[in-house]
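Dear colleague,

Thank you for sharing your sequence with our group. We've completed the structure prediction you requested, and as agreed, I am returning the results in plain text so they can be pasted directly into your records. Please verify that the sequence below matches your submission; if there's any discrepancy, let me know and we will rerun it promptly.
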Amino acid sequence: MSDVATDASAHRPERRKDPARRARIEQALIIVRPFFEAESRWGGHSLDHMAYRRLRAEMPELTEVDVHLLVVVASRIFAPRPS
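Please find the predicted structure tokens below.
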């Protein structure tokens, strides 16, 4: 059964058009991840504002819109799952 899934995914066209953008996204997620971890929460809230500052410092080439988008994406990816 797993062979069928592998075969189907092998024939899917690649949707990503900009590999450099994908690399920047992965780098940004690594940078901001600590601000969304359970141990880093302050009063049950993530430290989004610190993630913005760190991302601007580490990746100054990003626009304000890109930084905002990446922090929002990270907050969704790293959000705690309901039990």
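Summary note from our side: The chain has one domain: 19-77.

Kind regards,
the structure core
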